[in-house]
């Protein structure tokens, strides 16, 4: 095997191991997040379930949200937060910051959906904030539901693992064949020496 092929094999194996490690990190993060929004390297993928932010955010699209310090949020920003509305309490909601004010000496965010006529009845506190909207991934409802599901992250982990196992099995198989070939060559050389 040439040096170039050996190096190429090592680079591919290294890349697959890194991909597997990243997949494992994502999978563990998602599993351990419980009721919280899964965050990977400070970013989350969320599905837009209602039309309250249309036309800015279409129903069924996937949005990317970045974990953001409440101090950095400004009026006009789109934020994701855990709702205090009793009908959807604790469920992530994504609306625009309409106003930043105070409630009993605490900073609060008054939010409003772009498609709604009135501001949200319930205030958003610093600890409710998941993060700030970064961008959306235009997708069909089916694609969006796949990306948003935990099974998607399972495959992000499983596929790299299968590739790592496959390539390592090929490397081991080749090493065994090479060793057997060298042993047979050694025996053939030994027989040749004995015959001489």
Between the first and last Cα atoms, what is the distance in angstroms?
32 Å
CATH class of the largest domain: Mainly Beta
Overall structural domain count: 2
Q: Determine the CATH topology of the largest domain.
A: Umud Fragment, subunit A
Average predicted confidence as pLDDT = 78
Strand content: 15-25%
Order of helices and strands: HEEEEEEEHH
CATH architecture of the largest domain: Ribbon
Rg, Å, rounded: 27 Å
CATH-wise, what's the superfamily of the largest domain?
Umud Fragment, subunit A
Treating each run of at least 4 consecutive H or I residues as one helix, how many helices? 3
Q: Report the strand count.
A: 7
Unreliable stretches, pLDDT < 50, 5 or more residues?
30-34
Structure in a nutshell:
Helices cover 43% and strands 23% of the residues.
Q: Which short descriptors sum up this protein?
A:
196 residues; 7 strands; seven-stranded antiparallel β-sheet; rod-shaped; alpha+beta; 3 helices
Please give a structural write-up.
43% of the residues lie in helices and 23% in strands. The chain is an alpha+beta fold. It folds into 2 domains: 3-25 and 153-190; 37-139, Umud Fragment, subunit A, CATH 2.10.109.10. Strands 1-2-7-3-4-5-6 form a 7-stranded antiparallel sheet, with helices on one face. A hairpin with a 2-residue loop joins strand 4 (92-103) and strand 5. Helix 1 packs antiparallel against helix 3. It is rod-shaped and about 100 Å long. The chain starts with a helix and ends with a helix.
